[in-house]
Structures are given as C-alpha cells and as structure tokens.
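Worked example 2:
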Amino acid sequence: MRTRAAEWRPGWYELDQPIEEGLSAEFAFFSPEQAEEPNGVLLFYNTLWNRAKAVSARGVIAKISHPVLGALISVDTRGLDYTFVLKDGRRLVVNAEEKPGTISELIGGNWATSDEQVPDWTLAVEFADLGPLLPAPRRLNR
C-alpha cells in the first residue's frame, strides 16, 4: 500500500462515489494515463466517463479538502442532493439534479439558500494507503 492524492470531480445526478475521511473501501478511478489529464492526477471515476477505462484500488481516505470550503469530513452522494459535511461543523446540502451546485445550509434552525459561492466543486482527496490500480469494469456494472 502507498499514499496517493486524487481528485473528486462531481458529475452530479447521483453518479459519484461517496467519500468520507477514514473510509476504507475499494474506490474506482481513472489513472492519470487513462484519463489523459495534463497534471497527471488520479481521478475518481463517475459514470459519465467510459467504464472500460476505469481502474480500482483498495484504500483508506486520510483527508478531504476544497480551496473554498476548507477541510471536509464527508460527501454523501445518495439522492437528488449531495450532503457535504465540513470540519467546521457545517452541513451543506448541494443540489445534484435541477440546479447542480446550488447550496442550502442550516441557518438559524431553517434551511435556506446559502450565499456561499463555489465555482469549482473539485475536491482534493489524500489516501493514507492505496493499493495497486487494477482493471475495474466488472465492479462498475453494479
């Protein structure tokens, strides 16, 4: 196992993998060579991309961060809204269907549209351990 950084870029519409600090699981990616990314970053797979180019590896997420939101604990991608849980205690509910990226947050006990502006939802994910990248098409058929 080895440490490695990756990027999580949402496709919205319940297409993305949930992530959580401390989560030990098998994750699907596109390797830098397969994704043809100029910066050589490992990208989390989402179903908008070609599953034949996907790889998977078992790993443990050590850290999740965003340049605007800061440190995150988790991103729950189930349903029509994604829930981003930040280390500062805030929960942001982000629309993932009709108006992807629109944020709501709990303000004074009520959910309201947030003034927070996030032009790019790409998250930096650091793995404490990440095994070898292996072909993953069969796993992605689920």
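Residues 2-140 form one domain. Residues 119 and 128 are 28 Å apart (CA to CA).
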